[in-house]
């Protein structure tokens, strides 16, 4: 095969882009194996004695042995990791379930205000999350609470412990709810474009074959928009996993996520760069695994052969 | 099993009425073909029978039971779609058995049924393939098999062959005819192709502009079209129409126009004497034959413009006055372009229509 000769500037641009995207990750990877002294000392060469001490510090609460250099395990990475997993997975699943049904309704059903709703889903997406922060913080702390004097509130307090009224603030559910609200518009918008491509006659054929509305949706439409679901899942999971701002305000000591934990390593006296880099590397692993798994579902030409083109 | 009866069926989209009171009785196990040009309402009628379109007015009966309000899944029919509508994420076997699996039939029964149906349509070797890996004709067979597997009493076909190339269409048409003899069920078939209609149908229903123009057996419609539309729609090449006046000369009624005068057989003439003089004369291309010495009143003088050689037959495009006339002839007949030749008209092949209303006289 004959390749066209490209302008050298093209390769230069490519190299620059690759350096820009891979560089920071490489830096983080290298620094995560250095001691803080080496990092701050400015000897940024590649010649250093690699150490796993940073990782030991980061993972101190899940390790089976006690690292020598630590007197006290202050970093609860394991707990935060579980919190992050719960929050990211739950918000992804809920967003997808609600999103695909909403998108299907918006595409296939005719009802009053359909176009307005379809458009406003995108408009909601335009609101920056920071704007949500203050009102949501207020609502989660003061409005959406169950009085501890009531039966349900009392039961929850007795079962799960804690003081004061039962509020959404500081719970997994509170954060999950915000993430679902934040990601839903975009997911609906993405899935709409996939559902439009499912030939209507397929649904008609299924209806004639004896399928009810839900069977049509779950047995015909859903399998065909798998690529869309995968794309939406990657998108939602990534946002929920990395989100910092809302989580920092809405989580408490027991529900904080990994991004919050990383920032907790900074204090006015000391920035533990090595540990931050190590935690950052660990933070990056689950989304990569998730993306690899989800992207295998993205196969083009899902509807090939359904109808005569 | 049941007869299908449409009673004053009306379809409106908003304020636009597209079907104007369709009345139709289909006998038990009859193969009914709805035929007409695009947009005549034939597909809408079929989709209303299937339950995919709502009924605006009127009623549909299967036997004695009104079904107009039922969901498609409750009507117990099978349908073959124009674009096949195969489920792309299922292999052929699963496509065929989809309806059976929805009914939660036993596994062995489903397996046996799939095997049986696959044999009928000749798909046994392809059961594990996805629709994407099949050719157009094979996909069409899968669609057919899926309908057959359902054991319905009523089969609906929505232009099933229109996506196939000409050769395959002829082959599938023949297979459909064979299948039709094996499976004695009510079948309703929509097509815009009059050859499909003529070859397959027990009863043809010709539709146009949301009305039924005429219904009956293929032969009946071909020989005695009720109006000019039906006459022009059925038959290939289509019937020739010549504007003419009725003239009474020496006890013989003639249809005369620019450059021709054709005697009308006595049995038809009697009824015609009462009607309006302005008529349209209709002659099928196959009812004209080359006859240089045809007596006056029984022949037409035509100027040959184009000769289309199609094998055993030649189709001549000729001119008579202002009108174009098509003639179908045996290819051996020696014809030179630009010549004016004389053609005899078969007396039984004379059709007359009211020029204003188009109804047959």
Automatic annotation (TrEMBL), chain A:
Which CDD domains would you find in this protein's record? TM_PBP2
The family database entries (InterPro entries) matched by this protein are listed as: BP-dep_ABC_trans_perm, MetI-like, MetI-like_sf
Membrane topology summary: Multi-pass membrane protein
Where in or outside the cell?
Cell membrane
Looking up Gene3D superfamilies in the UniProt record yields: MetI-like
Chief subcellular location equals membrane
Q: Which UniProt keywords apply?
A: Cell membrane, Membrane, Transmembrane, Transmembrane helix, Transport
Pfam assignment, any one:
BPD_transp_1
What positions does the domain ABC transmembrane type-1 occupy? 81-294
What sections of the protein cross the membrane? 9-30, 80-107, 119-140, 176-196, 216-241, 273-294
In the UniProt record, does the keyword Lyase occur?
A: no
Q: Looking at the record's lineage, which domain of life comes first? A: Bacteria
Q: Does the keyword Nucleotide-binding apply?
A: no
Q: Which family does it belong to?
A: Belongs to the binding-protein-dependent transport system permease family.
What is the protein's name according to its record? Carbohydrate ABC transporter membrane protein 2, CUT1 family
Q: Which organism is it from?
A: Roseibium denhamense
């Amino acid at each position: 095969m004959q390749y066209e000769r490209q302008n050298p500037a093209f390769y230069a641009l490519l190299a620059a882009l690759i350096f820009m995207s891979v560089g920071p990750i490489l830096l983080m990877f290298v620094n995560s194996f250095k001691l803080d002294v080496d990092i701050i000392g400015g000897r940024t060469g590649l010649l250093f004695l690699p150490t796993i001490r940073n990782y030991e510090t980061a993972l101190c609460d899940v390790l089976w042995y006690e690292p020598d250099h630590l007197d006290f395990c202050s970093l609860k990475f394991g707990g935060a990791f579980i919190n992050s997993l719960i929050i990211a997975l739950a918000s992804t699943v809920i967003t997808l379930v609600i999103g695909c049904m909403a998108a299907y309704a918006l595409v296939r059903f005719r009802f009053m205000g359909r176009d307005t709703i379809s458009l406003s889903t995108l408009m909601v997406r335009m609101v920056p999350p920071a704007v949500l922060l203050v009102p949501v913080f207020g609502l989660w702390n003061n409005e959406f609470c169950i009085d501890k004097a009531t039966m349900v509130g009392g039961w929850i307090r007795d079962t799960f412990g804690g003081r004061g009224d039962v509020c959404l603030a500081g719970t997994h559910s509170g954060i999950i709810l915000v993430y679902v609200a934040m990601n839903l518009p975009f997911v609906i918008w993405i899935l709409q474009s996939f559902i439009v491509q499912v030939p209507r006659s397929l649904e008609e054929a299924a209806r004639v074959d004896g399928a009810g509305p839900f069977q049509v949706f779950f047995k015909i439409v859903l399998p065909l928009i798998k690529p869309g679901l995968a794309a939406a899942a990657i998108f939602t999971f990534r946002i929920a996993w990395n989100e910092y701002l809302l989580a920092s305000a809405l989580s408490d000591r027991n529900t904080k996520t990994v991004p919050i934990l990383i920032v907790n390593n900074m204090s006015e006296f000391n920035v533990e760069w090595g540990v931050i880099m190590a935690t950052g590397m660990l933070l990056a692993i689950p989304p990569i695994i998730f993306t690899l798994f989800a992207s295998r579902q993205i196969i083009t030409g899902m509807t090939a052969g359904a109808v005569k083109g | 099993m049941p007869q299908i009866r449409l009673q004053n069926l009306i379809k409106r989209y908003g304020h636009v009425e597209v079907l104007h009171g369709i009345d139709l009785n289909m006998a038990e196990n009859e193969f009914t073909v709805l035929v007409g040009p695009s947009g005549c309402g034939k597909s809408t009628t079929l989709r209303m029978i299937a339950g995919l379109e709502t009924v605006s007015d009127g009623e549909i009966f299967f036997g004695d039971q009104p079904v107009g309000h039922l969901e498609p899944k409750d009507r117990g029919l099978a349908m073959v779609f124009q674009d096949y509508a195969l489920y792309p994420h299922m292999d052929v076997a699963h496509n065929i058995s989809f309806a059976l699996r929805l009914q939660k039939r036993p596994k062995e029964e489903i397996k046996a049924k799939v095997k049986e149906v696959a044999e009928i349509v000749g798909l046994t070797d392809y059961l594990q393939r996805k629709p994407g890996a099949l050719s157009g004709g094979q996909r069409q067979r899968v669609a057919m098999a899926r309908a057959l597997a359902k054991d319905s009493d009523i089969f609906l076909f929505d232009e099933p062959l229109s996506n196939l190339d000409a050769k395959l269409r002829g082959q599938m048409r023949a297979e459909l005819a064979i299948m039709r003899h094996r499976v004695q069920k009510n079948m309703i078939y929509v097509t815009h192709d009059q050859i499909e209609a003529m070859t397959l149908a027990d009863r043809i229903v010709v539709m146009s502009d949301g009305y039924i123009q005429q219904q009956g057996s293929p032969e009946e419609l071909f020989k005695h079209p009720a109006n000019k539309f039906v006459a022009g729609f059925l038959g290939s090449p289509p019937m020739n129409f010549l504007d003419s006046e009725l003239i009474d000369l020496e006890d013989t009624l003639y249809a005369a126009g620019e450059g021709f005068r054709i005697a009308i057989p006595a049995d038809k003439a009697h009824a015609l004497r009462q009607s309006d003089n302005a008529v349209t004369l209709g002659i099928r291309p196959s009812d004209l034959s080359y006859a240089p010495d045809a007596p006056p009143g029984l022949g037409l003088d035509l100027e040959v413009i184009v000769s289309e050689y199609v094998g055993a037959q030649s189709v001549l495009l000729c001119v008579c006055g202002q009108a174009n006339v098509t003639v179908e002839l045996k290819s051996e007949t020696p014809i030179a372009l630009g010549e004016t030749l004389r053609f005899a008209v078969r007396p039984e092949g004379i059709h007359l229509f009211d020029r204003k209303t188009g109804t047959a006289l």
